[in-house]
Amino acid sequence: PKQTIPSEPSTYQFQWNSDAFQNSAYLNPAPTSDTYPNNLPEGQERPQFGFLALHLPNRETTVISGGHSEAHNNDLINYWKNNLEGERRFASNANGYTDFTIGNHDASWGDRNHSFPVEDNKYTVNEILNDNGERLENQCILMLPLWTRTKTLIEGSGFSGNNPYEPFERKAVVHIAGIFKVDGVDKRVEKDVEVYQVKRLTNPKGVWRAHNRNESFNVTLLEPINSNAESDFQSFTSQGEWTAFIDESTQTGHFSVQPNGKTNGYMENGVIHGNTGSTIDFAITFEGEVKDDESQCAVVKVLYHGNQCMHKILVRKGYNAPLRMGGTTSDNGKLWSSFALYQATKTGGTEGVDETFDAILTKNPLMLGSMFRRGRQDQGIFVWNNVPENTGLGPFVAPGNTPFVVGLKKSGVTITPGATDENWKNQWEEKTWTDIGFRNDASGNGATRSYNLGTFYALDDDGHYTTDNSGNPLKYRVPTYDEFQALTDNSEFGFGVFYGSAAREPKLESKEAYGLIDPYNVGLFDDPNGMRAVVAYDKQTGNQILFPIGRYGIGVRRMYSWTIPDYLGGTPNSLYFGHLQYADVWFQLSLARGAANLYRPIPYNLPKVSGCIYWINVDRTNVHGSGNGTDASCLGWDMNYFNFDFNAYTANNWQDACPIKLVIDE
Fold it and tell me: Can the peptide bond before residue 204 be classed as cis, meaning omega within 30 degrees of 0?
């Protein structure tokens, strides 16, 4: 970018990684082949790391497992070349020329030894007419399909077919060359066409309503005003027609889209059509009755800028019922709870083997649950501690010896549901990070070895167990690695701002769009503010499960962060143990901090980006790590809100505190 961007990462969500992007080792010309020009202009980025593909990508999720290294970058280059994502060749007909007659065509690939989907091979030739409606000879419009590349290109690298930047567009250049016979003479024609990837849209990304709430939601697609991490939002206009409709393949309820009177659009066959130059405004309606133990879902698709760009909005009505995600029961698909763990009291069993807990879940599914150190499920660190005004232990603050309010009941005190302020605080113990501790086995490996986090029985507001249809108490547990992997393999993902039952429209101020927090777990069902979250959804059934990342965009408290301030002689500063930060590094990922950062220039601002890590139940060893590409142990699932990662977390974080999402133990 040409603007001057201040260097303080807590103020700006984006800084230009000049070390990598302006380094000749990263920008050197692409390997010589019959596909690329032999000499790229100085400073031109390699297209292999960009967003554009000239063929339909054959994967929807991760292309390469591994990490940030020259070897993994070379793997991505080879993938790009082998799958011809940067090349289209139209085979010649019997006369030696491609068919450019007016109409739709299929391109043959016989000489390329590649098999492409039918829709990949098509192209269209349109005529050009003069003012009298007569066709202009030797002139035509060639319509070529283009695709966005896979969402995650290399785990942990930040490379993505999706644009991670909310304030900025991305650009690619397609070079078109051909030989045309004009008046019997061969004429070579070359043209560069610029292709822009629009800014990332996150507000709104989803709307969840309780089973008994039917109020409509007035959508306005919003973009940030500037690159400030706390930037407010504004509407924008569609450069070309826009449309909005329910994806009926995901419709399991009675949702619809309707004009809301803010634009001059019209409704036809369940589709809203908006005019070019207008803002993208319409209403989503939640109709019909849903029982308390039922749930209905759908995906709203919005096409804008001439119907060429897509934004999806996930809707759900009724969230008390767990939904099956990740496939069928036989292939690790599980019934996922909509709620996170708020507090647990041990009732029996052997630690790490078969412990049982009475559990209180978050009342609102949009809320981040408490954060738990492994082996301390009965001493969760409440989100109340994240509010700077309460304890001063907000983002990036060194806890030192300041105690946390934890989910351990004070002796002789009766818990009062719905209590707030000091009445709430006086019910719970206070402990420092060190006093909370974690399970540490004799080998010194903490809770990383075959440690079962237990079985949880959820209590309702009256202190009774929630039950299944047969009246038996529901058994919950923490998902396993295989179940998270099945969710990853069988879902699509969205990253953005979700709104609950009380919201009528997206919020323009970021402090409201991101501001939902329930420190006392009372539900706040009448709070219209939003929450940033990661959503997994099934594109066949529309089923959805939400992973909130909290008001401050951080879903983990760190034992270590390499390198936290005053990191001396290889020994971390203990004052920072338990600090609230998503990333496991304190510094920006510059070349000064490691040569490998040359090969992951996008997550340069990693220390300040948003995300969360949710615990898995028993650890999984020999996982192909996303950090350095080596086999490692996995204890959590990483959800990077910035660069769309949803993968196993293999940095050794067994001393951290993370939230817990639950599944039904079937």
Answer: yes
